[in-house]
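Title: Comparing notes on inverse folding

I've been comparing how different people in this forum approach sequence design from structure. To keep things fair, I'm posting one structure and asking everyone to reply with a full sequence. Here's the target:
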């Protein structure tokens, strides 16, 4: 059976389209969705603990300089992540009742 109609979908879900936080200074990322970090130079960004498995936050380093991302809880070793200028880090929340924290699944490296 041939497909006769194309279905148009937004690039991001409606929840993500509405969940954009613009940080022009140091501060907390949005609880979900996209956080645009546009401060010139080094910028400190915190991420509060997640509330459900699979919760995602994208940190986009729009400004110059490295963005240091410090989650309240982190999976694995280290305490911070670094997102380089003009790059993106995608973070996913995981909890199994014993282990919980943010994991960087794309674009940034954990630092100790």
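Reply #1:
Here's my take.
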């Amino acid at each position: 059976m041939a497909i006769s109609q194309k279905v148009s979908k937004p690039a991001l879900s409606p929840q993500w389209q509405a969940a954009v936080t613009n940080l022009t200074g140091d501060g907390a990322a949005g609880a979900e969705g996209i956080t645009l970090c546009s401060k010139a130079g080094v910028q400190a960004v915190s991420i509060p603990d997640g509330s459900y498995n699979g919760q995602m936050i994208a940190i986009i380093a729009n400004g110059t300089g490295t963005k240091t991302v410090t989650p309240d809880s982190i999976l694995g070793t280290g305490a911070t992540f670094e997102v380089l200028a003009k790059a993106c880090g995608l973070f996913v929340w995981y909890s199994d009742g014993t282990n919980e924290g943010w994991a960087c699944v794309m674009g940034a490296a954990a630092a100790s």
